[in-house]
Amino acid sequence: MLSNFCRLIYQSVICFIISVFLLLVLNFPALAVPDDLSQLSFSDLPAINSSGSIDLDDGTRQWATGQTPDQFLRLGDIQSLLPQSLSINTISEALGQDLSGTSIENFAPLATQSVGSLLEAMPELGQFSMRDLPVLQSLFSEKASLNPGQLQEASLSQLLQDYPELSQLNLDDVDLSQFSIDSLPGADKLPISKLDGWEKTTLTEVPGLNKLPMGSFPGAPPLAGGGIMRVDFVHGPEESERTNTISGSDVMGFRVPCTIGNPDDCAYIELDDAENVGRTAQSPMEGVQWISGKYQEVEGGHGAYKWVNNGKEPTGRLPFGDTFKVVVWEPDETTDSVTTALFARYCDDWGCTPYFIGPIPFMTYHRDDPIFVGLITPEPPTTESSTPTRAKKGGGFPPMTQFDSSILGGGGGGDGRTCTVDPSKLDGATKAAIASVDPASREGAMDMVPYIMKACAEAGVTDSDQLAYIIATAQHETDHFRTMREYGDPMYDECGSGEGMVQVTWCGNKERVFRELGLPAYGGMSDRRLQQSDIAAQALCRGMKEGWYGQGRPIAECIGGGRVDYRCARQQVNGTDRWEEIGAAANRIKAGLVRSGGSGSDIGSGVICSTAAPGGGAGGSVPAGEANQRIMQSVQHMGSFSSASGPRSGREACAWAVNRVLSNAGIRPLGNNPNYVPSVESSLQNGRGQQVGQGQAQAGDIVIAKDQRHIGICMNNGCSQVRSNSSSGATFNWNSNGNFDGEYDRYGGATRYYRITQP
To answer: Could you confirm whether domain 427-605 is CATH 1.10.3720.10?
Structure first.
């Protein structure tokens, strides 16, 4: 009855959570539930059953037994719900109570601001007379000893012009309990995202937020099509080898088999259609298995924090979005019941940990109860299975000692080569090709076209019509040379979405690429080498020349010897999708190549690839190893990206941008304050890196110059080419030398080079 009722009136995931919560936990009858069901808040969730911590560069995250999620979850952990777009005013309206009179002391994002950061968030305050800003009056009176006359008549902007050091004072340097939020004009209407450091605030530190119904959050996910099933059978850990699963992670997918080759520990619940029509009406999802995350763990995590907890999390599902992971915990055949738990994760701009903060006891189900599983998308089982935790049966919710939260590490991959582009060594034909792509593509073309020219020369592509069409294909497939990963990450099969400069899809095609190129075998969806520029270019050039894709015909059967059939050529990649548009681009590139007259062995000479020598580098320096390789792959993958969301809208985002590249490479951010160059350098000097001389500097090293005013990434050996953030353009695309000459000429100071040794 409950499942049918949900289908009729439930409008969101939250509605379903609340109804099942009331029915199964509080034993409310289904039809006694009021119509407005979206009232469950974070403070209503049960307390966590184990303590833990994470040691990070910016401090330690801790949670303790007995805390409710609102007490340890930060706003950055639940960004998908968009709490940062709320204000005290919008929270007040949702709760039906005025919170603007709450003391600033109880609104941590505001209380922790400096005067300078407050003025950045609320520039209109600069025009107010100090008499209208009592909290700042008190702050300046106590900490700067200014006379009463100055604190009455002057505007805030005037005062800061006369005494710029006042901008460094923090609001919480005075007792804020006597000042309400609305004592700062407009503070109650300010989106939380405008306040520096908002993502580090817990839910209880924003007035009313922990009481806000989850359905009222701007990013609350809708109930997207069905997702209600029935608990058919309950099986304990004595079971073995289950492959028809719907559990896993957002990294491995949600059809991860249970311990292929292992004899037991595959506890699970078997699910059937919600209507309980049994075997007389079978559906494709009948009999699917949700594996217990108490007994099985899977890969999880993203970015710089991917390797927290050894990169593992309990297997489960994300039926309510990515704020919590729902985990089947202890299936008990003797009572035909199963407990479930929620797990949270830590997230910020640099990535997300696996879901390992828990368990938070959730709901207990019995046989024939409805259970919400969320939207299930068709996908085949993964080739990799989950890993047994060797947890013991029974015991409720003990501390999960098998989830070690103390380890931060790094990943790996690639073929051992580090490749960079030296613009000063580009040949005429490559320059002409870059100049001939459409204007929207030229910035990214500088990063990719040199690799294509080199790979095609090595593959023996000498026909200018063929070369032009190959470049035009890459321009289209990479969205103007912006990405080598298909937007939306559609799952074609267990090997994921399209990758590379030709968007290779399907396991068979990806496996063939690595086999044909003589590289170590393709390693499945977590293998990202096809997004490495030199390998992607080889897969593009040789694949099209030899006919690895589409209809399997070499490009010479469509283009060559004076024959140009763009429709045929497109069919060797992706049907006839936009074949005329790609053909027109090829014509423009061909004209540029013909005008340049460039060909021969100098093609691609601007691409320099090197392999780090085992055990050391030149001159006994710190070897440029895995971290350097990952950094360069990240630079090539991210290309020219906007830093507008960094400090001062990208104008002071040089450290922020470098740390974004590191995060994308799976490397922890540098610095207790990752947006501040001195803090980044301090981190490198105190365990995270080692200084090297310019003669030993290699691609992927970090360069800091001009009295710590700027930071960038070395793009070649010797660091004569550096990529860094452009302050004026708010984009990570400024190519300069290691001294940042030009923009920073007025500053002095030595240039220092560092190699990251602790990713």
So the answer is: no
